[in-house]
Design a protein that fits this description.
The protein is α/β, with parallel strands linked by helices. It has helices at 2-27, 38-53, 59-72, 75-82, 111-120, 135-146, 173-182, 206-217, 238-244, 255-270, 304-313, 354-359, and strands spanning 97-101, 123-127, 154-157, 166-170, 188-191, 195-199, 227-233, 276-277, 282-285, 295-301, 318-323, 334-335. It has two domains: 2-193, Aldehyde Dehydrogenase, Chain A, domain 1; 195-335, Aldehyde Dehydrogenase, Chain A, domain 2 (3-Layer(aba) Sandwich), CATH 3.40.309. The longest helix has 26 residues, at 2-27.
Length: 361
């Protein structure tokens, strides 16, 4: 049994190595592709097809996703993760079929669910998003090439199967209502809209603010772990943010992002809503957690008690909170600046332990 879990760890760690090679090649454009082995080349080609299909998924952002996942799949990290589950690796007489309805807001956003299902010993049935229908298939191809025993445990489809032993679905608040109705009699995890926030003290360095910018601009702000609300001390100078975020002006090269920016700028002006125009992002003073791409909400708090109250208000909608300091805020998933889009395997979406759910089946 221990050998089985070790084999799974080895397979996913090898996948991580291939992802890292692919990311490096994507960063270098075509300069290194002739040196790529077959499996990273397969991922590379899927990345190019995806970038041609979905303008939000540029090769740079796909490389970012591969890099983050390759860090998640390091052997030491996987060993630390599986060590939390004594029951993991026990022989399953009848593996269960788990449908995973995958989102398509950022590249390979559904990979963690695939990792959990396969690591638990069950069968993965992925319903592909039309926005990301190439990368998950390529990843599955690499996994089955690395471990032939996974061939019968992975399937991908544009439509979800009607029969399953369990369901994991990620979508909007509207789609969640449909999923909860449709899968009412099937064990399930249904995820809704989530957003993330950052809490600043005012003592952050320029480097801290640059890293915070990565949490805001990576994937063009479309991920649930991207920062959409800043909580700032009352005397904080917004110009510090604008200077630090000049690094991310490249987002304007994306026509979809630029179109959104111009639309929301016109909308705010038409409604006589005050905002700060940084050129590549619009800052609006508003305590609401969710903000549209490319608008960033910020709020000046009077003291830490008020900031904590705002965070507590959004407990059920907050994916994670970025801060330089480890504040005592209960169950909030706290991360350092620059790390929101680098979750570890144990940083479960919506705070629901996917592996525990699967091991109870």
């Amino acid at each position: 049994m221990q050998e089985t879990i070790n084999n799974r760890i080895h397979t996913f760690a090898s996948l991580g190595d291939h992802m890292r090679q692919t990311a490096n090649a994507l960063r270098l454009n075509d300069q290194a592709t002739h040196q790529l082995p077959d499996l990273p080349r397969h991922l590379y080609q899927a990345a190019l097809r995806t970038a041609n299909h979905n303008p939000w998924f540029t090769t740079g952002e796909i490389a970012r996703a591969f890099e983050a996942l390759s860090d998640m799949l390091r052997t030491s990290v996987l060993n630390k993760w599986v060590g939390r589950y004594p029951g993991l690796g026990k022989e399953i007489s009848t593996p269960r079929k788990v449908i995973v309805i995958m989102a398509g807001n950022i590249p390979l956003v559904g990979f963690h669910d695939m990792l959990c299902v396969l690591m638990s010993g069950h069968c993965f049935s992925g319903k592909l998003s039309t926005q990301d229908d190439q990368l998950p298939v390529a990843v599955a191809d690499v996994l089955t090439a690395l471990d032939a025993s996974l061939v019968d445990r992975i399937e991908m489809s544009a439509r979800h199967s009607k029969k399953a032993d369990a369901v994991i679905a990620t979508g909007s608040n509207n789609s969640a209502r449909y999923f909860e109705y449709y899968f009412a009699n099937t064990p399930h995890i249904i995820r809704k809209n989530r957003n993330s926030a950052a809490l600043l003290s005012g003592n952050e360095s320029t480097q801290d603010l640059e890293l915070l910018g990565m949490d805001i601009f990576s994937y063009y702000g479309k991920g649930c772990r991207n920062i959409s609300l800043l909580l700032l001390p009352g005397d904080f100078d917004l110009n510090r943010l604008l200077k630090a975020w000049e690094l991310y002006r490249y987002v304007l090269e994306n026509k979809k992002y630029l179109h959104n920016l111009l639309y929301h700028k016109a909308f705010l002006k038409a409604n006589v809503t005050p905002f700060t125009d940084a050129g590549h992002i619009l800052l609006r003073e508003n305590p609401e957690l969710a903000s549209p791409v490319p608008v960033l909400h910020y709020w000046f708090y009077k003291d830490f008690t008020e900031a904590a109250q705002i965070i507590n208000k959004y407990q059920d909608r907050l994916q994670c909170l970025a801060s330089k300091h480890d504040h005592n805020l209960g169950a909030v998933d706290m991360v350092a600046f620059g790390e929101t889009q680098h979750p570890a395997p144990w940083n479960y979406a919506d705070g629901i332990d996917t592996m525990e759910f699967l091991l109870r089946m």
